[in-house]
């Protein structure tokens, strides 16, 4: 770019959000002679196999509406677990949760995938709560934590598991999905696909490979301090690495890969200057990010009440003042860096 634009003495600033936020910080770490500063938004900077804190932050974010929401979700998962105990319950789950094929309640991988998918319904809403993705035409941006908890705490909607099914139906309808394809075989078929034609999981396959060989980041149900049950443990995710990519992608290989990543980049002991790390308190990814200053020249901006990469979207009149202030703070830091 410098050659193309005929630039000689200019300074470059790297911007990124989420994993690209990590890359922005690591770019500044590894190539400080090429990039003058970096804005690393919602950036996980420590690789971790079992990211069980993810659901703990989801719980905390849901609790901003009151504890009743988490209580209802916990009870819904308990009721789902009870329905799993016999074939009549399997039929009920199949019908109420609009599964594409009948649930086989003794297929542990199908059950784990189903519970993980139902939890993802809530995870996705929390992670992107009240952001401005709508400017890109993204569907479902009007489904917020308040909407989810409104459904889950509405006793007129029946017992908690019925409300949980209603939430699932609403999300299926928003994304124009007829049914929920819960089977592990379907997941594996999608992630094993290597051709470009008619492939809906190109990015999914690539990112999953990176989790198996660099980062982990598996959002398991292994924490007891969350309301989503315990049906999708860490082994459910690590097994996928072998099932998709081959037998050599073992648990120990993933662990060694994560250790290498943290050694390569520094993990939480990242040594950088002229980097700012904005994070939102609602965003579960802040648990693996920088939420306190690393130094006077590697600072954190922790934005209360905002979600994933909120500061990177175009401003809205409804933005909370702390989000507006964070954007101004980032701009002032960049201005300062460019004078250095």
Structural topology:
Layout: H1 2-5, E1 13-17, H2 19-30, E2 37-41, E3 48-50, H3 53-62, H4 68-83, H5 87-96, H6 108-127, H7 145-152, H8 160-174, H9 184-192, H10 202-215, E4 216-218, H11 234-245, H12 251-265, E5 275-280, E6 298-303, H13 321-338
Parallel strand pairs: 1-2, 2-5, 3-4, 5-6
Organism: Cherax quadricarinatus (Australian red claw crayfish)
Protein name: Serine protease K12H4.7
GO biological process, one term: proteolysis
H and E order = HEHEEHHHHHHHHEHHEEH
Number of strands: 6
As a percent range, the share of helical residues equals 40-55%
Q: How far apart, in Å, are the first and last alpha carbons?
A: 22 Å
Q: Which regions have little confidence, pLDDT < 50, spanning 5+ residues?
A: none
- Which value, in Å, is the CA radius of gyration? 21 Å
Strand content: 5-15%
InterPro entries: AB_hydrolase_fold, Peptidase_S28
Protein name: Serine protease K12H4.7
Family: Belongs to the peptidase S28 family.
Pfam families: Peptidase_S28
Could you explain the architecture of this structure?
The mean pLDDT is 95. α2 links the parallel β1 (13-17) and β2. The strands form two sheets. The protein has a four-stranded parallel sheet with strand order 1-2-5-6. It has helices at residues 2-5, 19-30, 53-62, 68-83, 87-96, 108-127, 145-152, 160-174, 184-192, 202-215, 234-245, 251-265, 321-338; strands spanning 13-17, 37-41, 48-50, 216-218, 275-280, 298-303. α4 packs across α7 (145-152), α4 crosses α8 and α10 (202-215) packs across α12. With 340 residues, it is of the alpha/beta class.
